[in-house]
Design goal:
Largest sheet: 4 strands, antiparallel
Oligomer: single chain
Helix content: 25-40%
Number of helices: 2
Protein name: ACT domain-containing protein
Organism: Lacibacter cauensis
Number of strands: 4
CATH architecture: 2-Layer Sandwich
Distance between the termini: 38 Å
Order of helices and strands: EHEEHE
CATH superfamily: ACT domain
CATH class: Alpha Beta
CATH topology: Alpha-Beta Plaits
Strand order of the largest sheet: 2-3-1-4
Radius of gyration: 15 Å
Strand content: 35-45%
Structural class: alpha+beta
């Protein structure tokens, strides 16, 4: 009997998100990160006076799913803009 060993390599990346309606969008983001097995290292929220906010999420994502996570974040209701920066 042979065994197949699969190793998932996680990469560090930072997502910078511009969001509107922060309370509802934060709930959706928390569920999204949990459902997609994204490990959060650091999470910063900066709220503006006009009601929008910027989130900086330092996280670890499976290397093979990095592009898929980025495109799915664009589809989340309340997310206006997503920028991804990859770490070393």
């Amino acid at each position: 009997m042979s065994y197949l060993k699969v190793e998932l390599v996680r990469t560090n990346c930072v997502f910078v998100l511009q969001i509107e309606n922060p309370t509802d969008t934060l709930r959706r983001l928390a569920m999204f990160f949990q459902d997609n097995n994204v490990l959060l290292n650091d999470f910063n929220l900066h709220r503006y006076q006009d009601g929008t906010a910027m989130i900086i999420a330092n996280c670890q994502v499976d290397k093979l799913r990095n592009d898929a996570i980025n495109s799915l974040l664009h589809l989340l209701p309340g997310v206006v803009k997503v920028q991804r920066m990859e770490g070393k």
